[in-house]
Amino acid sequence: MVILPRQSGKNELQAHIETYLLFIYSSLDAEMVKVSPTYKPQTLNAMRRLERVLHQNVTTREVWKKESGYIYRLNHARIFFLSGGPTANVVGATANLLLSCDEAQDVTIAKWDKDFAPMAASTNATRVFWGTMWTSKTLLARELRAAREEEKKDGIRRVFILTADDVRKEVPRYGEYVDSQVRKLGRRHPLIRSQYFSEEIDAEGGMFDARRRALMQGRHEMEDKPQPGVLYALLLDVAGEDESADDSEAIELRNPGRDSTALTVVRVDLETLLDDMIQAPTYNVVNRYT
User: Fold this and answer.
1) pLDDT grade, residue 254 (50/70/90)?
2) Of the candidates 242, 286, 244, 243, which has an alpha carbon nearest to the alpha carbon of residue 263?
3) What is the pLDDT of residues 95-144, one digit of tens each?
4) Model-level pTM greater than 0.85?
5) Nearest 5°: CA angle at 196, between 112 and 212?
6) Sign of the four-CA dihedral 98, 102, 105, 108
7) Full set of structural domains in the chain with CATH
């Protein structure tokens, strides 16, 4: 399990590892499978990157071959590049050495479990999931939890997570770029948290995050009638959330978050301060209708 911030060298690292494995296992009948969420552009980009590394390496540049448009061979070792798109036909490949999934947060769990996971069965081959953090509902997050459970059992490290703070130590200009994005969007922006600081953002998929929901808790009784001089807000969430839906149209249509329209009536207290001393109102729920 390897989780890296956006544009921090993840795909370059993969290409070098793939070149290394092709070389050291070149005398064996070793097969690897590399899965990307789409064929165009992600699978094509991954193949071009591997070609460049193979050509730059003096031990491989004269001996590697390309077969059938998506297979790279170094003597007897091969790596297959496949699309993880919902409609991609990938049945038949075998990964007896390595099964690797790039951008695993964008490959559906159903597609992976049905079409790709069995490819490693014959040898119980190593599976590596690469990606950038998103929500806990993704394939990446599921495999992250499973890897952490295995770590607890035997103490062998399986999870490698870096953030923008780790990358800036090696690439100062990367840190400067991230700082500019934080100034523009804010440290708690979902894209900043997930793409650069490797934090899950489940709460941002709905209408309120956990921080905002905490402000909605009150000890008062439900109110049926408005009180004079009190400020109220009517909060309408039409048909639930769409943010957690998959890119696939079929998956999106059955997104369980899109099941109702919710109207929440809240009483607003403008005097409340958040923990970090940023001025913001407290919302005390008065009533809720779905």
Assistant:
1) very low
2) 286
3) 999 999 999 999 999 999 999 999 999 999 999 999 999 999 999 999 99
4) no
5) 90
6) negative
7) 2-161 (3.40.50.300), 164-196 (no CATH), 206-289 (no CATH)
